């Protein structure tokens, strides 16, 4: 049983913002948008967070090529504000000025006690142990922190710890408790000491004296809070961001609790209880359809029944469709489920299919335009020495470029029949046959369009227009490349519709591509005929194919590596470039992609995967992998080229090691240099660590392995939300079908189990509170 917090983030656009900037979170960084005051990103992320997180901040930066990026403003949303709107937050949010006294982070370890009994004067004692993850205020990537403890007009200060965000003081201070000033709090403030300028505020903790007198003692890690907010003179003038955020906190129960629900869902697609899937289809709203479709697809992939599930939806959709020209054109549950299936099971196929053509377009950066109203001769350049191109020259040249890209792409699609995943082939054949049965008297092209409406219009064409969203490129295309991709996607859509007349009547300037499009239509029909004629054998089976796709090779790429033993830092050994491969069981690396692996780390031996302080190597994008070998701790340092690549590797490794035992609860974010740790200045090389590990902070990726319990919980939460609508729609079946009655009972049992867990957690919290009072 575990609580999981997932934050969906869609960064849409901005307005009235400075030029050439990007948007930055601690885990994510968007592409830089140049020379515009109203940028559009359209980037989406799913971030798995620990349930203890407090807020999410988005910083807008002015990117500088030669110096550090300038922070323009931020948008900050608390966890409470996100939790208050379970349907999500979607709208424009004003940027606010960055106030240094509000930009605090980290925790401090304190023990506060009230000493003395009877009528003797009581003493208030504050023991300051250590702090961790403090804000970096100095140019060296650290701070010089000290603690100021004040009560009733008296002030004590600790010593200054130089160049550390993980200081240890171990000092105690005492105050005479004033019974008459019970409302005066004990204040513990952390400051960054500066020799020349004024000290920088790092955060504070306030203690209520009345509560302390009742409890006698409080000890633990306390989160540092900001100073009182100040009124900003720039409020409302720094621009705004349009964000869509949705926080999901899920209490995932053990698998046995979900088994009855999973069994009933499997029966609904196995032919024993078709009414159940019909009820889900009827009651799922447009707002939740995409999420429900994705969760159902993953659930049935794990059960090996995804073909049967899609087949049930195909039949439901065909029964409701009277006009073949509108078949699968709406965002129905069938359309959304097929779309999700293609993204989950066909992403590697898509990368192999589109990768070479997309990379070629990005590298060539040719000017391409067919619409006479949009031709810009300045952008097109000169045709030769002292000869400016005419509009006709530009269009003719553009048609040639597009035809070349289109020929390459159609050729790749035709050749892909031999490596298209068996699961996709069988699903398309199933769809092809169902449409043929439903409309036998209609023209033969309807069954082809049913396949191309998904393959071309909902999968290949969107990936061409937005390659970053389909993980084909790391960054969005510039304006010139975006226009080329859009025109190519239009051509693919026309081919997918198997109808050139409709396209050319709406956009006559596409006529120069007519020969290539007509040839593409003929080749696409042949391809579909081959695709739906695939062998009936299951070869590895759907579940095995998914595990191969998700787990055999999660990530690979060139990185700079530095390896040490027992964290003994040999600064004379530089980072070296290696090709790193994260496989199903090991992390291996070699000097080149195809050379023999020179070394590897078994994933079960990894104890922690964490970031490294910027000051350690002079780079903010270094991570460390701590593993155990024959009782000795070894550390591998990886230097990534960007913060996004860093977080992708952190996320992939943490998910690959999620079932590891004996993981570390604390670690050193610095390096052992000379005779001490650079982070906390401790001299013991075997010191346990000065910061807590973050095993649960990950990004959701398309290649993530299936998580049956989480998917079952998400489906259960949706079904509980529409239970009343399902009861109303299912009343004709409930009286005569035992399965439908059993379904509603299973939902009630699961809801009771969740309520019991929540009540037990509340009893545990109350018990701990009483124990603290007794202590």
TrEMBL record:
Any one biological process term the GO annotation gives: intracellular signal transduction
Domain of life per record: Eukaryota
Keyword Ubl conjugation: no
PH domain residues: 552-658
Ras-GAP domain sequence ranges: 288-497
One Pfam family linked to the record: PH
Annotated SUPFAM superfamilies: C2 domain (Calcium/lipid-binding domain, CaLB) (SSF49562), GTPase activation domain, GAP (SSF48350), PH domain-like (SSF50729)
InterPro entries linked: C2_dom, C2_domain_sf, PH-like_dom_sf, PH_domain, Ras_GTPase, RasGAP_CS, RasGAP_dom, Rho_GTPase_activation_prot
Single GO molecular function: zinc ion binding
Keywords: GTPase activation, Metal-binding, Repeat, Zinc, Zinc-finger
C2 domain ranges (all copies): 1-93, 104-222
Name the UniProt record assigns to this protein: RAS p21 protein activator 4
Source taxonomy: Eukaryota, Metazoa, Chordata, Craniata, Vertebrata
Gene label: RASA4
């Amino acid at each position: 049983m575990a609580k999981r917090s997932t934050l969906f983030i869609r960064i849409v656009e901005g307005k009235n913002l400075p030029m050439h900037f990007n948007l930055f979170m601690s885990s994510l960084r968007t592409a830089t948008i140049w020379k515009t005051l109203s940028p559009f990103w359209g980037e989406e992320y799913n971030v798995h967070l620990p349930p203890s997180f407090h807020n999410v901040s988005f910083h807008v930066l002015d990117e500088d090529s030669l110096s550090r990026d300038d922070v323009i403003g931020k948008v900050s949303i608390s966890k409470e504000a996100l939790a208050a709107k379970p349907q999500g937050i979607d709208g424009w949010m004003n940027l606010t000025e960055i106030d240094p006294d509000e930009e605090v982070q980290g925790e401090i370890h304190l023990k506060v006690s009230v000493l003395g009994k009877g009528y003797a004067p009581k003493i208030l004692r504050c023991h300051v142990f250590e702090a961790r993850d403090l804000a970096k205020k100095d140019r060296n990537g650290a701070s010089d922190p000290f603690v100021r403890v004040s009560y009733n007009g008296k002030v004590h200060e600790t010593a200054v710890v130089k160049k550390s965000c993980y200081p240890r003081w171990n000092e105690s201070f005492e105050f005479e408790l004033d019974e008459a000033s019970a409302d005066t709090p004990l204040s513990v403030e952390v400051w960054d000491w500066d020799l020349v300028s004024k000290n920088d505020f790092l955060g504070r903790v306030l203690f209520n004296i009345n509560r302390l007198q009742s409890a006698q003692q409080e000890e633990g890690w306390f989160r540092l809070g900001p100073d009182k907010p100040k009124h900003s003179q720039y409020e409302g003038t720094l621009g705004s961001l349009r964000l869509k955020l949705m926080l999901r906190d899920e209490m995932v129960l053990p698998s046995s609790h979900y088994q009855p629900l999973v069994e009933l869902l499997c029966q609904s697609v196995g032919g024993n209880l078709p009414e159940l899937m019909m009820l889900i289809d009827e009651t799922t709203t447009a707002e939740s359809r995409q999420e429900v479709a994705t969760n159902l697809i993953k659930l049935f992939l794990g059960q090996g029944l995804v073909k049967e599930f899609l087949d049930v939806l195909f039949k439901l959709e065909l029964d409701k469709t009277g006009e073949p020209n509108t078949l699968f054109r709406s965002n129905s549950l069938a359309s959304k489920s097929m779309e999700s299936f293609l993204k989950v099971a066909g992403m590697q196929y898509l990368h192999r299919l589109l990768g070479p053509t997309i990379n070629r377009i990005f590298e060539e950066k040719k000017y391409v335009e067919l619409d006479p109203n949009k031709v810009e001769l300045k952008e097109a350049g000169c045709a030769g020495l002292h000869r400016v191109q005419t509009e006709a020259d530009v269009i003719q040249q553009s048609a040639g470029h597009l035809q070349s890209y289109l020929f390459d792409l159609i050729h790749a699609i035709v050749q892909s029949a031999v490596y298209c995943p068996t699961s996709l082939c069988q699903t398309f054949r199933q769809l092809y046959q169902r449409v043929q049965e439903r409309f036998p008297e209609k023209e033969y092209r309807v069954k082809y369009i049913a396949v191309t409406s998904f393959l071309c219009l909902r999968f290949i064409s969107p990936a061409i227009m937005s390659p970053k969203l389909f993980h084909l490129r790391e960054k969005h295309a510039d304006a010139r490349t975006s226009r080329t991709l859009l025109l190519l996607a239009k051509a693919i859509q026309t081919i997918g519709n198997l109808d050139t007349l409709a396209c050319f009547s709406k956009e006559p300037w596409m006529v120069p591509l007519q020969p290539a499009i007509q040839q593409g239509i003929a080749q696409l029909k042949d391809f579909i005929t081959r695709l739906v004629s695939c062998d009936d054998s299951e070869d590895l089976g759907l579940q095995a194919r998914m595990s191969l796709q998700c787990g055999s090779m999660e990530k690979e790429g060139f990185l700079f590596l530095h390896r040490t033993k027992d964290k003994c830092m040999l600064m004379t050994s530089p980072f070296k470039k290696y090709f790193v491969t994260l496989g199903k069981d090991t992390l291996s690396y070699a000097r080149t992609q195809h050379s023999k692996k020179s070394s590897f780390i078994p994933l079960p031996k990894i104890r922690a995967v964490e970031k490294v302080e910027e000051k350690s190597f002079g780079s903010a994008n270094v991570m460390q992998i701590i593993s155990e070998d024959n009782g000795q701790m070894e550390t591998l340092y990886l230097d990534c080229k960007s913060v996004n690549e860093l977080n992708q590797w952190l996320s992939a490794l943490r998910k690959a090691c999620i079932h590891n035992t004996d993981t570390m609860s604390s670690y050193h974010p610095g390096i052992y240099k000379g005779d001490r740790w650079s982070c906390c200045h401790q001299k013991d090389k075997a010191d346990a660590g000065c910061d807590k590990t973050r095993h649960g902070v990950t990004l959701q990726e398309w290649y993530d392995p299936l998580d049956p319990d989480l998917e079952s919980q998400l489906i259960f939460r949706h079904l509980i939300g529409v239970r009343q609508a399902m009861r109303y729609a299912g009343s004709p079946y409930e009286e005569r079908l035992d399965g439908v009655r059993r379904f509603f009972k299973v939902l009630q049992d699961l809801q009771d189990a969740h309520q019991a867990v929540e009540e037990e957690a509340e009893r545990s919290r109350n018990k701990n509170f009483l124990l603290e009072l007794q202590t």
